[in-house]
Design brief:
Elements: H1 2-17, H2 30-44, H3 46-52, H4 59-81
């Protein structure tokens, strides 16, 4: 099983290193290709990493943001799971 784990790690590393490319065969399909490229960038989280590395953030600020995200997530799930009242 160790060989399989190493192979999986290699595949993940290759996915990260692969450039984002979209082939455009027809000029009419340029909008669709742009849309696909934007989706690929969003899915690869490149922009998020760039924003994280833009400036130093104190560890306490990171913890606070993490706590606020968890709090928001908990509130949303509580609202969604709340049974509705039938009058």
């Amino acid at each position: 099983m160790k060989g399989n784990d190493k192979n999986q790690e290699f595949i993940e590393r290759e996915k990260q290193l692969r450039p984002l490319m979209v082939d455009v065969h027809d000029q009419d399909r340029l909008d669709a290709a742009l849309k696909k490229l934007k989706r690929m960038i969003k899915d690869s989280r490149i922009m998020v990493e760039l924003q994280e590395h833009e400036a130093f953030k104190k560890p306490s600020a990171k913890r606070r943001e993490k706590w606020l995200r968890a709090r928001s997530r908990a509130r949303r799930s509580a609202i969604e799971n709340k049974p509705s009242r039938l009058v």
